[in-house]
Design brief:
Structural class of chain B: mainly beta
Largest sheet of chain B: 6 strands, mixed
Helix content of chain B: under 10%
Largest interface: A-B, 24 and 23 residues
Oligomer: heterodimer
Radius of gyration of chain B: 13 Å
Number of helices of chain B: 0
Strand content of chain A: over 45%
Order of helices and strands of chain B: EEEEEEEEEEEE
Largest sheet of chain A: 7 strands, mixed
Number of helices of chain A: 0
Distance between the termini of chain A: 36 Å
Distance between the termini of chain B: 41 Å
Number of strands of chain B: 12
Order of helices and strands of chain A: EEEEEEEEEEE
Strand content of chain B: over 45%
Shape of chain A: globular
Amino acid sequence: NAGVTQTPKFQVLKTGQSMTLQCAQDMNHNSMYWYRQDPGMGLRLIYYSASEGTTDKGEVPNGYNVSRLNKREFSLRLESAAPSQTSVYFCASPSPWAGYGYTFGSGTRLTVV
Amino acid sequence: AQSVAQPEDQVNVAEGNPLTVKCTYSVSGNPYLFWYVQYPNRGLQFLLKYITGDNLVKGSYGFEAEFNKSQTSFHLKKPSALVSDSALYFCAVRSNTGNQFYFGTGTSLTVIP
């Protein structure tokens, strides 16, 4: 089935290390989103891309960068990881079988030690 | 400003009893309202949506939600709870004039056998 694919599923980083979270969607939609989920805080938008070639900051962009490589792919980069970035990260994109709400990836559980 | 409130962090209900998970929203323009469910270590899954039309909408797994414009609410309901309904539930809203979704902080539902 078409949907949103995220990699990796789990990652442990040391403080100061960098990594890139990958996201790909095959629903042919223009917009893609990166959220982080923390207990008691729900989902907070980090960055989004309304279309290929554009990106915009969300609610909590500090410490992150993004790249909209093409219509399918939207990556999230942590240049210098901090313990405060320990979280579960979700990529999302609108889809017709979610009523044009979001279809979410399965998430990346990141721990920064 | 757009926002979603889920006033209850935790809801406990006995199996077989009706359940309600509350959601209120604030949005400019007409709201598009969604409910998502998250099972442990999984991504969010679409349950149901309200865009326009009948105020009572039916979704997956026997869930339904009632849109109340005067109370700006969109409570999730089910007539008879199952143990397998135990999960984290998120309400989300989008304005009909924008692309961005806003999520509540989530309500943890526990159905007691």
